[in-house]
Amino acid sequence: MTSSNAGNKTYETDVSKHLEADKSLILIDDCMLVQVIGVISVVVILVSVAECRRFNGIEYPAINCRKHSAVLTDFGGVGDGKTSNTKAFKYAISNLSHYASDGGAQLVVPPGKWLTGSFNLTSHFTLFLQKGALILASQDESEWPPLPVLPSYGRGRDAPDGRFSSLIFGTNLTDVVITGANGTIDGQGSYWWAKFKQNQTKLTRPYLIEIMYSDQIQISNLTLLNSPSWFVHPIYSSNIIIQGLTIVAPVDSPNTDGINPDSCRNTRIEDCYIVSGDDCIAVKSGWDEYGIKFGKPTEHVIIRRLTCISPDSAMIALGSEMSGGIRDVRAEDITAINTQSAVRIKTAIGRGGYVKDIFVKGAQLHTMKYVFWITGSYGSHPDNGFDPNALPQITGINYRDFTADNVTYSARLEGISKDPFSGICISNVDIRLSQEKKKLQWNCTDVSGVTKNVIPQPCDLLPLKTEAHDCPYPTDKLPIDRLQLQTCSL
């Protein structure tokens, strides 16, 4: 094993353990100081020097910069789209984990097609995908280790047993960045979608990126394609920044949610474009009795400058797994095109928990089935062990400044009998109906609240408010909004 240091950058490269030669230190231009062991080592080092020159001067924003750098090819990576790089990723991250206490490390994925199975990240670490870099998810199930079910879910989403590890996975981490110069991660999900549709899944399909029990997470400036199931799933984590993602899956692909913050605290999602077969963003916090017992809410979420296309689902969903509670979600400057609904609250008897203090302003909607949709009868229980007396609390729902065209239904607001959903406020909304509009535009049951300056006229359960003020939207900044990114370099 040889090590090299220069310009606050360090890496380790595998060389022949059997080669015996004189050791010497050589400075190769201004890029690195290397320790050379024999001729084979020189060849490997020179490849790394070329990579160093290629990446010199590239800058990117991150929560933290790294003192040390390496390139995937330093660890045997082969970017031909055919060779498995699972061992190369694992080997690289294992080596770079040693620098966690010395300024951290970043692994650069250069241009090429890098086929790989699941691999785990480490703390104080950056995974950087260069422009032209394409990570391809393996369709060999042996490269996806099984994991136990999530404690707040009690079973897998696809099947009762465990689940496959996500392509990029991490647990109990601090300070993790997954970013790039718009490099691409392709989950090659068609294999998994076919198995799911044919009811052949014994374990829940893998997600593309999942980070658990972690703090300080950034996922940014990437293109994500064709996830086997959910794309980005931070869970039981805090202080999360997700920005500049382009997420695309076929609109008929099953359960390809875009971004799902789940039992998380302090999350910022901004400047994302999502085309999905399911909800573009789904805020979650556990499923029925398991989520109630685990008791970890999702709170303090800001979503801004989101564009969504999802003909069969929502731009932003709250639930349906919300048994740990969802509180203080803010969304602004959001756009939906050819999408089933804008913001949808999904819950049911047996969920328990709450959805409260929800604030949405500035929505531009084009070709929608519903503008407003709240469902108290979503069902979809993990098993028969749920408590029928566990009723969800839905209150403090605030929508303002919406414009929508080509709409079929203005609103479908369905609370639960003996558990009405309260505190709904809707103001400054202009809905223009499609030629196929339904006669009953506002279908309201077991809800209460007020409206102001809303067209078409809302239902009687949401009467016109007489006071001058619009529905509230917070003016304070969330803690995650005060986190400023640094300018880092390769």
How is the topology of this model organized?
Elements: E1 2-6, E2 9-13, E3 23-28, E4 32-37, H1 38-55, E5 59-62, E6 68-71, E7 80-84, H2 86-96, E8 105-109, E9 112-116, E10 119-120, E11 125-129, E12 133-137, E13 146-147, E14 163-164, E15 168-171, E16 174-180, E17 183-186, H3 190-197, E18 209-212, E19 215-225, E20 232-235, E21 238-248, E22 265-275, E23 281-283, H4 288-294, E24 298-309, E25 314-318, E26 326-339, E27 341-346, E28 354-375, E29 393-414, E30 421-433, E31 442-445, E32 447-455, E33 486-489
Parallel strand pairs: 6-8, 7-9, 8-11, 9-12, 10-15, 11-16, 12-17, 15-18, 16-19, 17-19, 18-20, 19-21, 21-22, 22-24, 23-25, 24-26, 25-27, 26-28, 27-28, 28-29, 29-30, 29-31, 30-32
Antiparallel strand pairs: 1-2, 3-4, 5-33, 13-14
Summarize the structure.
It is built from four helices and 33 strands. It has 490 residues and is mostly beta strands.
Describe the structure.
It is a single chain. This protein is mainly beta and 490 residues long. It is built from four helices and 33 strands. The protein has helices at 38-55, 86-96, 190-197, 288-294; strands at 2-6, 9-13, 23-28, 32-37, 59-62, 68-71, 80-84, 105-109, 112-116, 119-120, 125-129, 133-137, 146-147, 163-164, 168-171, 174-180, 183-186, 209-212, 215-225, 232-235, 238-248, 265-275, 281-283, 298-309, 314-318, 326-339, 341-346, 354-375, 393-414, 421-433, 442-445, 447-455, 486-489. The protein has a 21-stranded parallel beta sheet that branches. A hairpin with a 3-residue loop joins strand 3 and strand 4 (32-37). The protein is globular. 53% of the residues are buried. Residues 1-51 have low confidence and may be disordered.
